[in-house]
Amino acid sequence: MHPSEVLFQGQRQPLLLPACDHYAGSEKLMRKSMALQQELGPVFDITFDCEDGAAAGNEAAHARLVASLLNDEGNRFGRIGARLHDVGSSHFEQDVELIVGAAAPRLAYVVCPKPNGIADVLRAQRIVNAAAEKAGRPDLPLHVLIETHGALHDAYAIAALPQVECLSFGIMDFVSAHHGAIPASAMRTPGQFTHPLVVRAKLEMVAACHAHDKVPSHNVTTDIKDSAVVANDATRAAGEFGFTRMWSIHPDQIKPIVKAFTPRASEVNEATNILLEAMAADWGPIAQHGRLHDRASYRYYWAVLQRAKLAGLALPDAAAAIVNQPESI
Questions:
Q1: Is the pTM of this model over 0.90?
Q2: Which long-range contacts (CB under 8 A, 24 or more apart) does 318-322 make?
Q3: Are the C-beta atoms of 13 and 250 separated by less than 8 Å?
Q4: CATH class of the domain comprising 20-261
Q5: Which residues contact 126 (CB under 8 A, 6 or more apart)?
Q6: Predicted pLDDT of residue 328
């Protein structure tokens, strides 16, 4: 049997998405990001930004540009999404009509910013679905930004929606929503990893995601010139907070983020050895280096190999044989 059939026994496996979500707003940056994705492969997603990317008064033209780029042959891997205006904006339904209506089959997802709670998400979902179904894409995934008090309060309910596959933390709007009660230093490192209210918000959102097998995405690093800061933020977000994805706002941030979220070679080798021995034991318990392993730990090491494959890591032959094993029909 395929490892996933044994380890999850019909239950839905945790969703995996590329570790980096790269935002681009202007036409120049959108085209540049598409060219980079073609060069590196689908190891990162691209999100075309309408909320902050469209100049005032130019919202419709920007939405049409986004749709045209989504339908362009440069969208080779189908891993480009779009952040729409928030559902309370007068431009939201126009974004849906012009982008979802024209390019739904080529969209990886749509991002819904600034919901005040699950009611806003459900409203956005209804509007998006109506346009997507007409365009032949009834299963268009939603990503939701958690950046208001109401959205954080409803994070578990939002993550439970089947169509939602990712929650992203919007740190700057979240901090600003406290009207000075949280200092500006909490928008960046080290404050964003130490201020109690920000730490609480991140942990609650991440817990909601993992409870429903969804992807938690960490907020942006605003320091775009120092790759060491980006790498540190990504490493802490993954290792200390349980995030499995992170925003990028500059092409130079992409590789450090992907690297930070990619399992190390030693982890891949350990996972390979444990899973090979588990398969030889017909997935029964084993002891390796004096430590007990059973299906609980096998699921962990299976995820290690899956994440490594998603990141484009060159896997050892034995590991590749495991992750590429065909599932039973």
A1: yes
A2: 318/272, 318/276, 319/268, 319/269, 319/271, 319/272, 322/3, 322/272, 322/275, 322/276, 322/279
A3: no
A4: alpha beta
A5: none
A6: 59
